[in-house]
Amino acid sequence: MTMLKTLVRAAAAAPLAALAFFAVPPASAQDWPTKPVHLIVPFSPGGVTDIAARVVGQKLSEMWGQQVVVENRPGAGGTIGVDAAVRSAPDGTTLLMATNGEITINPALYKNLTHDPQKDLVPIAMVTNTPLLWAANANAPYGSLVEFIAAAKAKPGDIAYSSPGAGTMNHLTAEWFAMITGTKLLHVPYKGGAPAAAAIAGGEVPVSVLAVSSALPHVKSGKVKVLGMTTQERTKLAPDWPSAREAGIADFDASIWVGLFAPKGTPAGIVAKVAKDLKAAIADPAVVARLNTAGAEAAGLDGEAFVARIRADTARYAQIIKAAGIEIN
């Protein structure tokens, strides 16, 4: 554990000149936008990224007097959509809504990317944050994170957990959890969050790392119980669920965030205007309510703070991928 923390800190401290946020020339955005803005989502409709794009995009359309057109470009773990955004003209007419997976995980996971998301994109702001949690089948013999950890230590490698797929944020969160708790778990990848949740509801596997939105229907049905959050704080979406910190797990805070990005070279004036208007949009109570219904919390982290979060996440997940030997063929 000490070695992992040292590696992460060392990597996080390295210069990240790649983040183009600091290299964009100033420009006036007084008349922008003068035509529709295309918002690329690197996943199919219906997921947390798509919902964030449509909810926020609708509000920005009202504010700008121009249509925000959501374009779904799914495939290859989000790399196809990111590639399309990177290759777009840097004039503010194309933006990207992406998760920490595409921005901070994929560079360490995929060896043949045709782009570098941290060199080729300008980070504007974090839009939403979706908490993750450990959930278990209702008949599992443990009812809390403390009991789950004890069971996993008693039988190393015996307890299986489902995830939406290899290399996903849920997968890396489980591996990170295993590293810091000194446990060994068996990974069983599924094709998406819904099948992974259905697997524990049906008893195919005893536990899983799930997003709140994936867990809720099964919790309400009584087939799944929540062991605890993977975050240091309880979530406002379900305040009765205990945090990782309450289970005595420090230095562990994992969630799926969705951020807004622009192609490298987009004028700083436009980036600043989008950031300002986005902050106003996600402060709107109606927008917040719609995001909460989808299992996401409005974020609003921007500027240096967002860049710092990207830097820290990139270092952390690169080391987890290496330490866990995760590979995508």
Automatic annotation (TrEMBL):
- Signal peptide positions (record): 1-29
**Chain ranges passing through the membrane:** none
Entry's InterPro entries?
A: BUG, Bug_dom1
What highest taxon heads this organism's lineage?
Bacteria
Keyword set includes Plastid: no
Supply the Gene3D superfamilies for this chain.
Bordetella uptake gene, domain 1, Periplasmic binding protein-like II
The protein's matches in Pfam families, at most eight in alphabetical order, are given as: TctC
Keywords (alphabetical) are: Signal
Protein family per UniProt? Belongs to the UPF0065 (bug) family.
State the protein's name: Tripartite tricarboxylate transporter substrate binding protein
